[in-house]
Amino acid sequence: MKFLSNVLIITGILFIGYFGYQFLSFEIGQNQTLAEAQVLIDRYQQMNGKSGGEANFQADHMDAFGTLEIPRLKKTIGIVEGADEEALAKGVGHMSQTSFPGQNEQIVLSGHRDTVFRDFGELNIGDQFVVHMPYGDYTYEIRKTEIVPEDDTSVVGKAGKEELVVSTCYPFHYVGNAPERFVAYAYPVENSKK
């Protein structure tokens, strides 16, 4: 009996250590992404000012290139190019086949519900996202949300206008791989580009 209880204690300690390591790795990666993005934004704006550049902007896979500010949650997160697991481990991922702010088309950002979008369930219609890019800042207002199956790709496509789509896994407090996605659709606030 004592052997079994020792095994259970050791197993518990190993699990706690593993999850602690995972959490710490995510935090370090996210902080590094945010710092890299802020350096890029500051450097670009000092060299070129804030006007122009959106039409030709590109980013390579895993580049930290911007930040996503969520005023309601008092949170700013670094944006990384790519929406694969490696990119999402470092911050908010930008789906590479979609546009960037100011390019008058759909922009898709994704993040994990248990890391960067931990409090996403607190957002409401009318709340805002501010995307800080090297060439300017763009404010979007949430006008619609929906819950879709995890394999539903219909939310990604040509919008014909500027549209920010932000998604994360759902339900928010689900243990394991969540079966659905929470999707927020946000649109530019008039005269918000700085």
Summarize the structure in words.
Helix content is about 25%, strand content about 30%. It has about 190 residues and is α+β, with helices and mostly antiparallel strands. The chain has a single domain, classed as Sortase (Sortase, Chain: A, Beta Barrel), CATH 2.40.260. The longest helix has about 45 residues, at about 1-50. It is globular. The termini are far apart. Pfam families: Sortase. Keywords: Hydrolase, Membrane, Transmembrane, Transmembrane helix.
Notable characteristics:
194 residues; alpha+beta; Sortase, Chain: A; eight-stranded mixed β-barrel; 8 strands; 26% helix; hydrolase; membrane; Sortase_dom-sf
CATH fold name: Sortase, Chain: A
How helical, in percent, are the residues?
A: 25-40%
Biggest beta-sheet profile: 8 strands, mixed, barrel
Strand line-up of the largest beta sheet? 1-2-3-4-7-8-6-5
Please tally the helical runs, counting DSSP H or I stretches of 4 or more residues: 2
Radius of gyration: 19 Å
The helix/strand class is alpha+beta
Number of strands: 8
Mean pLDDT comes to 83
Unreliable runs: none
Transmembrane segments: 7-24
Keywords: Hydrolase, Membrane, Transmembrane, Transmembrane helix
Pfam families: Sortase
Organism: Salinibacillus aidingensis
